[in-house]
Amino acid sequence: xxxxxxxxxxxxxxxxxxxxxxxxxxxxxxxxxxxxxxxxxxxxxxxxxxxxxxxxxxxxxxxxxxxxxxxxxxxxxxxxxxxxxxxxxxxxxxxxxxxxxxxxxxxxxxxxxxxxxxxxxxxxxxxxxxxxxxxxxxxxxxxxxxxxxxxxxxxxxxxxxxxxxxxxxxxxxxxxxxxxxxxxxxxxxxxxxxxxxxxxxxxxxxxxxxxxxxxxxxxxxxxxxxxxxxxxxxxxxxxxxxxxxxxxxxxxxxxxxxxxxxxxxxxxxxxxxxxxxxxxxxxxxxxxxxxxxxxxxxxxxxx
Length: 303
Known about the structure:
Layout: H1 2-6, H2 16-56, H3 62-65, H4 75-81, H5 84-92, H6 102-113, H7 116-123, H8 129-144, H9 148-157, H10 161-178, H11 196-211, H12 213-223, H13 229-232, H14 235-249, H15 255-269, H16 274-292
Helix pairs in contact: 2-4, 2-5, 2-6, 2-10, 8-10, 11-14, 12-14, 14-15, 14-16, 15-16
Family: Belongs to the NusB family.
Pfam families: NusB
Protein name: Transcription antitermination factor NusB
């Protein structure tokens, strides 16, 4: 969607450059995932540094001299920070920039310290991997992911990361939920693509949507005579063309799967009315195809 929305060429252009941009954008999303894990490591380090400074205060109270170490000793954070494969790939991709941009680590750490989640966590006598994991999942969902300054930082760092952040957050939470103390280091580093077919699908969807742009635009226009033309030039138009491409060029993908996917994307990235608009158009097109027996779907579970 990002690549098609940014595409300014024509159907006759050589798409190699734009395909490279697409693959680079997808690879960049993995960099954001790794950078976010690196942020969790820096927060653990910040906890250790914070406690050491409390102990070193000349006029510190008893609580300062004996601060809670639950955060710095959190077993999930320890598992992440001790992952050598993660550290190697972060260094190789030069994503260890939190040392230079430490103020964002400070901002988030302070938000964690003043939260009820933190207060409840350090007051709870139970120490277990399950409790430690729940705490990290909670502070990530409620404090880290929604942080506007972090969001702005990622936007300044790389423009495409703004749209990638919600996807990365979902994947990261899913990975962390499944993590166990006995999990191999690779469990924290899922592949960007499920397999080579997954990567090929991304390239094919982009190319076939571009190469059939005029055809798709004409077909959509016939179904949207009462709609504002600006809507069709926006993300809604891009999503409709991608959906038509799946309808016509990918016979193994069921209509319902295509429609549901683009409705979810519309809810996330377009206007409040977009999902209703897109659902109405696609439903009308599918019924027409089925009645005329055009572009039949093949495979199991597609009837």
